[in-house]
């Protein structure tokens, strides 16, 4: 049973480092949005491998594509060398980039999102001859040194000294806690002033950076969609100042937010697009989309052993094909709006739901203390403890959710993009059970 496996893990604790056990189950099998544990209990999985499994668990076409590679005689590992499969995958991915990718080239960087972020930062430095980076509060870019340096969360940084120097953080818009500030007109003006007057001004102390890196919808930071006009303004000022704009689409990309890329909501074109998670259809793969004029690598300047995972290209290709041919982005956009309406109705009955936000199948539910004093924006204090309890109650009700944002107060939904309306109704049912179970 689950306990036996968990006890074995606990025994191994000193030898096998493992995820904190917020979700105490041992997984036996999974299909679609459903995970079954070793005791045969079923869970509706709204985490989907941290958003990696765009088509859910064990999609038959994805499994078949693995089978095809295995029986084709292709090597599993090819370094960065070309294969017909890599060729097909690259063509398919490029065609999904802005302008069908005609101004972009691809670079395979390694197995994880953080790998690709490292490559993007290095490339921006090389392309501009500058070294600074502007990043944003609540941004998440990975756990390697450079990626962690531009991550706007102090907790994981406090464990290690010596982050990348010259990283400046600016406030990211927040619909609930700062809806009018940096996100609105005043924020756009502040940003313009910052870039136009402060950068490279001796007295301001702000050095012109190589790049600005951001997520168009922050994931780990608590599901924060950036306003379109803010993103457009950032695109304009970075262009005017010759600063590269890096969009991290690792989590929000690949139809997750109801557009193929989350930056498409603002109609902007980044200089570098960071892609991982769903791009590999559930297997490890990371790729950069680079505007051709910034493709300044010389051979050997950025290499890595694991850039030729043929299985990941096969599962990635199948995923891209289904996302595109079945217009999953359109389906997901409509479902996201419907789900937000349902949750807004639930909010009236459960005031601990402070705010519901997000786009498509990337939805955040901020849990608050509604009986405490509201701040100057009329927003209640975040309640990380209750959110942790709700996560536990959801789990007991057979629902897997992740948390994020400040104090972990935001419950996050990142299910398979093929989730059905009936399954969303089951989610709502289980979530309500959890709220009742938590006595709120
Ligand atoms: N960027 C974003 C936006 C992410 O959400 C993540 C992972 N959650 C990463 C980068 C890092 O990816 P990885 O864990 O594969 O290194």
Automatic annotation (TrEMBL):
Pfam families: Aminotran_3 (PF00202). Gene3D superfamilies: Aspartate Aminotransferase, domain 1 (3.90.1150.10), Type I PLP-dependent aspartate aminotransferase-like (Major domain) (3.40.640.10). The keyword Transferase applies. PROSITE patterns: AA_TRANSFER_CLASS_3. InterPro entries: Aminotrans_3, Aminotrans_3_PPA_site, Dat, PyrdxlP-dep_Trfase, PyrdxlP-dep_Trfase_major, PyrdxlP-dep_Trfase_small. GO terms for molecular function: diaminobutyrate-2-oxoglutarate transaminase activity. CDD domains: OAT_like (cd00610). Keywords: Aminotransferase, Pyridoxal phosphate, Transferase. Its cofactor is pyridoxal 5'-phosphate. Its EC number is 2.6.1.76. NCBIfam families: dat, PRK06931.1. Belongs to the class-III pyridoxal-phosphate-dependent aminotransferase family. This is Diaminobutyrate--2-oxoglutarate transaminase.
């Amino acid at each position: 049973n689950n306990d036996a496996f968990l006890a074995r893990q606990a025994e191994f604790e000193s030898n096998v480092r493992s995820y904190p056990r917020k979700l105490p189950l041992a997984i036996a099998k999974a299909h679609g949005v459903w995970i079954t544990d070793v005791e045969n209990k079923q869970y509706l999985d709204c985490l989907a491998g941290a958003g990696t499994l765009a088509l859910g668990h064990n999609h038959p076409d994805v499994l078949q594509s693995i089978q095809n590679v295995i029986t084709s005689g292709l090597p599993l590992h090819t370094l960065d060398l070309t294969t017909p499969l890599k060729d097909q995958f690259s063509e398919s991915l490029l065609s999904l980039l802005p302008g069908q990718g005609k101004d972009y080239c691809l670079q395979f960087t390694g197995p994880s999102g953080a790998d690709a972020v490292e490559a993007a930062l290095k490339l921006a430095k090389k392309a501009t001859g500058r070294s600074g980076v502007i990043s944003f509060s609540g941004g998440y870019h990975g756990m390697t040194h450079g990626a962690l340096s531009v991550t706007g969360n102090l907790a994981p940084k406090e464990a290690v000294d010596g982050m990348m120097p010259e990283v400046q953080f600016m406030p990211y818009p927040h619909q609930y806690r700062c809806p009018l500030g940096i996100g609105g007109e005043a924020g756009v003006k502040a940003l313009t002033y910052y870039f136009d007057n402060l950068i490279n001004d001796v007295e301001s102390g702000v050095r012109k950076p190589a790049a600005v890196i951001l997520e168009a919808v922050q994931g780990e930071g608590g599901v924060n969609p950036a306003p379109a006009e803010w993103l457009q303004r950032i695109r304009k000022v970075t262009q005017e100042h010759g600063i590269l704009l890096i969009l991290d689409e690792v989590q929000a990309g690949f139809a997750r937010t109801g557009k193929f890329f989350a930056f498409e909501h603002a109609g902007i074109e980044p200089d570098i697009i960071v892609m991982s998670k769903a791009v590999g259809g559930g297997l490890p793969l990371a790729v950069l989309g680079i505007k051709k004029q910034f493709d300044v690598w010389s051979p050997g300047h950025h290499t890595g052993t694991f850039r030729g995972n043929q299985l990941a290209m096969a599962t990635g290709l199948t995923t891209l094909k289904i996302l595109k041919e079945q217009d999953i982005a359109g389906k997901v956009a409509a479902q996201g709006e419907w789900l937000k309406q349902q949750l807004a109705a639930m909010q009236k009955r459960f005031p601990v739901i402070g705010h519901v936000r997000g786009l498509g199948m990337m939805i955040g539910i901020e849990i608050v203390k509604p009986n405490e004093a509201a701040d100057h924006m009329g927003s209640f204090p975040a309640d990380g403890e209750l959110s942790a309890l709700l996560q536990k109650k959801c789990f007991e009700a057979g629902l897997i959710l992740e948390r994020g944002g400040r104090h972990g107060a935001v419950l996050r939904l990142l299910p398979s993009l093929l989730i059905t309306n009936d399954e969303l109704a089951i989610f709502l049912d289980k979530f309500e059970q959890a709220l009742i179970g938590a006595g709120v």
